[in-house]
Amino acid sequence: MKNGMIECSVCHSKLVSPSTKAVSRAYDRHRSKVSSKQRALNVLLVVGDCMLVGLQPILVFMSKVDGKFKFSPISVNFLTEVAKVLFAIVMLLIQARRQKVGEKPLLSISTFVQAARNNVLLAVPALLYAINNYLKFTMQLYFNPATVKMLSNLKVLVIAVLLKIVMKRRFSIIQWEALALLLIGISINQLRSLPEGTSAMGLPVATGAYIYTMIFVTVPSMASVFNEYALKSQYDTSIYLQNLFLYGYGAIFNFLGILGTVIIKGPDSFDILQGHSKATILLIINNAAQGILSSFFFKYADTILKKYSSTVATIFTGIASAAMFGHTLTINFILGISVVFISMHQFFSPLSKVKDEQENGVLEMEPQNDHRFILGTGRV
Amino acid sequence: MKNGMIECSVCHSKLVSPSTKAVSRAYDRHRSKVSSKQRALNVLLVVGDCMLVGLQPILVFMSKVDGKFKFSPISVNFLTEVAKVLFAIVMLLIQARRQKVGEKPLLSISTFVQAARNNVLLAVPALLYAINNYLKFTMQLYFNPATVKMLSNLKVLVIAVLLKIVMKRRFSIIQWEALALLLIGISINQLRSLPEGTSAMGLPVATGAYIYTMIFVTVPSMASVFNEYALKSQYDTSIYLQNLFLYGYGAIFNFLGILGTVIIKGPDSFDILQGHSKATILLIINNAAQGILSSFFFKYADTILKKYSSTVATIFTGIASAAMFGHTLTINFILGISVVFISMHQFFSPLSKVKDEQENGVLEMEPQNDHRFILGTGRV
Asked: In chain A, what residues touch B352 (CB-CB under 8 Å)?
């Protein structure tokens, strides 16, 4: 037995050992059916993501009163979670109405309790996201925003490593290089925004800073990957029910955070609706929609596609704003996006996929048997 | 008959048609023998190139008197060609002495005349190099040196296109992308040296400038590729004899250039030895050595390896000067060299090679026959 494979004693074919850890088995069973639809779905997800991310700076601009935010930024996180919970409930009600006779009822208490028990893992990403929301503010005390932006780019590599560990995804060398190129490409785009005198890594060398950087990069990456893991491992649960749990936990954790702030800073900070306008409500809805779209990425595509999608969205926003406001595109921007597009082609090119004869062999042999799930082969 | 292949009417195997243009046949015959030695040779070439390129800025610094060059830059080209001719003659004499009895004499008039006739093609790169030496000066009137440096990076793509057309080299998509990454990586390194306000392409938009750019990029690329073509197509001729012709033509063309200058500017500019010192002689010897090493690259390796080698040399010079003079490495430099190294790995990785079943098939079939040469398959 080698790499979880066993050899058939009759025909010497390779089989996946039944003891191989099989967390996303339901998802993998599903996968073999839908590969043809997957492309169309990916395109839809990316286009939707690009539109929402593109709206973001416009809404942020509109939310400012005299160039400042009048509302507490902590309240935005909580209200966003609440909006997502409401959306999940509405979608669940619609789904339940459309159910045919004989289907397992979506809204029965037994279904709900069982799903809640199965999806308890969603509390992990919800907690990590809540921690991340607080970290963002702390980080801005330690680093200037340009450095924070630069450091965020490291997330893509951390995500890939976590996908390899948690989801057992395999990447080819070309794909690892493509991810490094994505990181470099985004960084080149941001070079102009760094202060002139910034040295080699643009980092203050305080010892604590390194630890903060580690945490700042790892926590949101872990949140995304565990979210993908939790959503895919219970593939049969409706995504709206999964979202209800995820955002429910999220709302609870954020509410606890607000309570903590109230205890420390006094009851004034409890007024979470203070300073909001129509524009800020649109901003919250946009945030919520991005969050919901993310969960579709994590369940039906993956975290890496989400990363590429956000990058492409940023690039298109850059090009659109240059076209609308007559900015010239800097040479950094052109070099950076060239690297990003090459990276994207290399990552998704069939040439760079991990060759996996094992999987095909196993799939052909016993299609009715459960031996055949192998987690995360170079799939997108 | 398709792509120069014919089908055997008995066994239906594919054969290369004897009418297929077979310019580098001697080289290709040689190639099949030496693939094991090729790696060692490549390493030697790259290390030598790095040392010579690394010496260059030190010698340039030493050649300056009060921060200026006292000698005519045109004379450097001519003297470099003369130095290369002298080296070729010395090497030929050494080679002739070491010849065993029975070997075709290297220094007989008949050998020389026949080789001269066969290698007449070397006049083409020699002329192109001479034109390029004059263009360099003209370019500096139209563009600032930083822009010239940036434009020079485009050469690597032009060289690849020319290799495809002239040498029938085939590149995989990953290899094309690797070449684009090389271009981008070098450009990122140079970003800091561009003037602050430089817009999108950093180019003046005068109509003439585009034509000059085209010529400036194409002429030296054509020179390199035709040089490779000419040296490899007469693979059996001694490289020193080939160099003698190449640099002989080069010296003649440069001398004609000097004569032209004399006619236009008067006899003062004829004193080609004016203003030279020991340091400038070392500079000329270094230039000559780089030229000679290039011919080894072109004959025994290729133009692309030469490009990568020069880039690596520039990178090591940058790192060495940072280490010696205590400069901090800029973030541009770090991002740029990361892209260059990824590009290099991707270009030379066996994963990215063009799969070529045809060649193997043909080689196995008739090893004693001359059908088997196919030009420039994804070889490095």
From this structure: 174, 351
